[in-house]
Design a protein that fits this description.
mainly beta; six-stranded mixed β-sheet; five-stranded mixed β-sheet; 40 strands; 8% helix; globular; NO_Rdtase; oxidoreductase; signal
Length: 626
Amino acid sequence: MSKHDNHQEPSEHVKLSRRLFLGGSSALLATAAAGGGLSLASSPALAAEGVNVAPGELDEYYGFWSGGHQGEVRVLGVPSMRELMRIPVFNVDSATGWGITNESKRVLGDSHKYLNGDCHHPHISMTDGHYDGKYLFINDKANTRVARIRLDIMKCDKMVTIPNVQAIHGLRLQKVPHTKYVFCNAEYIIPHPNDGSNLKNLDAAEQYTMFNAVDAETMEVAFQVMVDGNLDNTDACYTGKYAASTCYNSEGATTLGGMMREERDWVTVFNIPRIEAAIKAGDFTTLGDSKVPVLDGRKGSKLTRYVPVPKNPHGLNTSPDGKYFVANGKLSPTVSMIEIDKLDDLFNDKFDDPRAVIAAEPELGLGPLHTTFDGRGNAYTTLFIDSQVVKWNMADAVKAYHGEDVNYIRQKLDVQYQPGHNHASHTEARDADGKWLVVLCKFSKDRFLPVGPLHAENDQLVDISGEEMKLVHDGPTYAEPHDCILLRRDVLNPKKIWDRNDPFFAETVAMAEKDGVALERDNKVIRDGNKVRVYMTSVAPTYGLTEFTVKQGDEVTVTVTNLDMIEDVSHGFCMVNHGVSMEISPQQTASVTFVADKPGVHWYYCNWFCHALHMEMVGRMLVEPA
């Protein structure tokens, strides 16, 4: 067997799996496969010991799920799979007032005009390759944004719109020495300048997309790198030197057929120290009104290398031992293992063929999309078309690529149905612990009660602590949690009440100080022309102001400070018939601005249940006719 001819035929029993028995009994298939060399899917009846988290007990892991086209991040406990919280980011959320309050609008900036988002990839900041629990970052493909969530308060605190590009998709973080950069890919190729001046002659226009780096602390764009082809998913290594991104449209096509034309596309590898040196030397340009340094990383550049891989690759995952970038083939049954230790030689032009950095290309099945790891040398890859997760051994895959007769596939597990991302506990850090695997399935079909033409999706929990994968939980989920990340609970220490000096509402505090208002005790109305600022405290079950008067047409800003010191006693402020609603948790200050355009009496009330007399926590705004 040559190193390029390492396809391994499964046994006859294994050939009878997914496509013939879609939706059939996994346990029956596992029995049929006994003795065939592969262990197929386990039944949910084979639940792992300890998966049940009893009432009053706490989960071992936090799970952060992207909310897909809901534009939010969801917090789950794992292994219970109980939803704990939703963090609005790119969406409007009437419960918390996200997108309505002044504090959230400051974070959203000019992009608060967008009512939608499409977030895919949540990732947690690191120090020396270990999760530090400080931030979570998330992309918005729909409106080309990147956002940051402070994990101590579980609130989005900064957001940036990436200039010069469209559709931020793949997003990962620099791991070493710390998360200095958030690396993110713009997926779609666009003309430059993209101002409509060349619409009749696009073929002659200069067109490309770019790899982007955002400063994790300032949330400003640090640099952009032009590339050939497009960009899909990305990841970074454990040396701090390299990031790599898949390209499924090396053809630069605009149609489906064109994007599938070539048998190989590529992985683009970025040399971060060379990029930083080029910026320092002034070897960059800028585009339009943006001041962001733009560097040319197209073929022939010293900043990038292009490694051909089969075909229309999708996911790009770094093994926790730091040895490999794993590119998932999507339209090829293979994944490509790029040996990171060889990248120095690749950039120093010591190889005639860039594929010299390929350590192995195991064949796994139909539609490999994403790979995760257990920290014991095994990888787990989703097979979208086969509706399976395949467990395989990386060291054995390398041996097979070099001609040894070894079976690198350990097990194939049926999942329901069409899995996209998968994620194992602590797998993006050095600390992959091989306990749990979450599989995010795009379809649920017959797994849950029917709810009309729009179906739930299906998140499945798999125990990977032993030699055999065991499916232990199905969980319906709504539109469309694209990816997730798992973090041990001891890494996080979220606040239970707010600090009064928290920067999240610092601008509102400064406004009050300018008005001579002490937020912790004052309840008063400040008039400045047709702008009225109403300050009130709240202590369950009453507001500090139960009535105030304004004039029709006034711009009214209501600021509420929750003086309660007991955790979980959140208050709300909802002004009836004005589209105004917000949450104010213990020791928080929140504000909202609206126009009092309707004369008459308008009630406001607390919309977060806080007390036995919660219903009586009300007040009135009296609006005098103009």
